[in-house]
Amino acid sequence: MQETPHATRAVMACAAAVVVLMLVVAVVVSARVAVLGMAGVVYLAAAMRAFAPSAWAFGVRDRGTDVTVMLVLAVAATVLGVTTNLD
To answer: Is residue 54 pLDDT above 80, yes or no?
Structure first.
């Protein structure tokens, strides 16, 4: 069995922390702020996946597919956060 690299564990822990933070923001502030915050995180993740070295990624898909899917999700979350009454 292969050992999980420390960088991968750090990325997974950071992602889990961001999800928990967005849940807290949704409860304390508003769902709209949480949805827009999550869209921002996905935009950032797409930029990181697009420009980071390939050795940093632990995905099995190619870079173009990952970035396209993340950008579609980010745009959808942005539209949802801006146009839907979530308060």
So the answer is: no
Residue 80 CB-density burial (10 A; 0-12 exposed, 13-18 middle, 19+ buried): middle
Amino acid letter at 23?
L
Evaluate whether 52 touches 44 at the Cβ level (below 8 Å): no
| pTM attached to this predicted model | 0.79
Do 35 and 86 touch, CB atoms closer than 8 A?
Answer: yes
The answer to whether 32 touches 86, Cβ cutoff 8 Å, is: yes
Residue 16's alpha-carbon distances to 2, 19, 22, 86, in angstroms, are 22, 5, 10, 23
